[in-house]
Specification:
alpha/beta; three-stranded antiparallel β-sheet; homodimer; 332 residues
Chain lengths: 332, 332
Amino acid sequence: MTAVEYPLLATRLTARYGMDVPIVLAPMNQVSDARLAQAVTNAGGLGFLGGGYGDEAWLERELSRLAGDDAVGCGFITWRLADRPQLLDLVLDHHPAAVILSFGDPRPLAEKVHAAGVPVWCQVCDLEQARQAMDAGADVIVAQGGESGGHGTAARSTLTLVPEVVDLVHGRAPGTLVVAAGGIADGRGLAASLCLGADGVLVGTRFWAAEEAPTAPEARARAIAAGCGDTVRSTVYDVVREYDWQASYDARMLRNDFTSRWHGSEDELRSRLAEAQSDVRTATADGDFSVANVFIGEGIGLVHDIAPAAAILHQMATSASEILGRLGSADR
Amino acid sequence: MTAVEYPLLATRLTARYGMDVPIVLAPMNQVSDARLAQAVTNAGGLGFLGGGYGDEAWLERELSRLAGDDAVGCGFITWRLADRPQLLDLVLDHHPAAVILSFGDPRPLAEKVHAAGVPVWCQVCDLEQARQAMDAGADVIVAQGGESGGHGTAARSTLTLVPEVVDLVHGRAPGTLVVAAGGIADGRGLAASLCLGADGVLVGTRFWAAEEAPTAPEARARAIAAGCGDTVRSTVYDVVREYDWQASYDARMLRNDFTSRWHGSEDELRSRLAEAQSDVRTATADGDFSVANVFIGEGIGLVHDIAPAAAILHQMATSASEILGRLGSADR
């Protein structure tokens, strides 16, 4: 594939990062591994490892699996990485394409990333975080609406957040690029995001259902069968995992028996924590996703099959190109 | 203005309803009056009266103010209209361009509207409601995400709901048009909605801030000063007004002292209802919108001025045309 194949999808992002299409793999915690990230990069997008909470053994293994010449970045949960600075060193030693910092003040870490000559991407859920990202000198701001899977806030949606961030950045840091995230799972979402002023899109859920993703078959079957409205934003699994998320954050996940039982009854869940932890542990080991967790975004209703990452990327690019070409022509 | 002015915005909706641009005024309860609706229609869009809960005196007055030859429709809250069938007769006698039915089973009323030779538009918040709309023989389905102001559900957002409704309709009722609603306040949102497969957009919040809208100056000043994240979905004013909304619905409104005090404390609010009702009544009369209600959508963060409805419509159309033309050309 060459950039000439999708001329309508050339953006500042593709130019700056040597991509053929402005599609970025979301750094899904331990789901976006070396295999999936390389597949997205090799297909003409940009892959990111999901460093998430920072598991050193996982990171070392996935970094060692990367071929040295593939452009792949790495994402982290900022507040967690702040306690594990050695993990950032580990990643920077591998010359990542970029580091995505999400959830927390990016400024102290951004300085270190920049000092290593690596671009800083900051994922933000609202305009206040976008201002903080600009203060951190972010090269790219990922504007993530509440449609997205996993952690974030429900306060804003992609359709309104992206243009507001674009306007904010345009006034203050016009060289900073904006990438749209949350609810983008097909070519329509990609084309729409470019109309909103984004330089590209960050895609999680659609690639979660890629052949290369290390997602459990039972979880995939459940997610593919799910439709619209089968996701919920909740903190129940954070309670179970005893993760210290700020109260402003929750996460979008597939509805299941566990969320139906405990969402809205978090205090009771805390009072029966050991039992719930044991249930979730057993269910995860058994691949029973009526109790185990599947973080997934609202875009799952647009995902109807498992396909290779390259096929997903090309289908999105072909569809978006067709839409933009057709709508941009008065002869349609 | 002629359709030739915006050739890239010609859709099945503009063709079927004789519009120049695919922009529809949301039937905001008693805000979308004859003056505002006519202004939108005369500028090349399609205006709707906000029949809302069904105030007979208001409806009679606004209907009488319509010039007979202007294409203007009327919207109602379905579950409320079901108890007041004479209001539908009143509207149908005026040969509206269409009737929008929102919130409730549209089937019994749709039959009557169709029998009068008037198109039925059904506003839906999820796919189940979209199926019900198709059962009702809807001519147009308005797919409304949780970004929208006023009533609805937070379950879905515009970016994912619209393409899912488009796919559903395409398979079962391909002659039914889909209009996107929720969070669309500028040309970027219009262009993005067309990419998602919508035949047009329904716009509330932006026209709420039109010069012609009968909105209180104090409310406008507060809304224009508001930014992203200054809205909240809540039921507090439904509690105060003792409206019998189903539990699945809430409404998006401007955050103020009243929502900060009572949102999340609805049981306590019910126990002190008379006092709260008196407070809201007084505040509304005084134009004190720190306590009185302003229903407004998430798009308010994209609204920075009060302008005539025609200027708003032309600006949206010009911007959307520029975006689609630019993104659809490889020479950009």
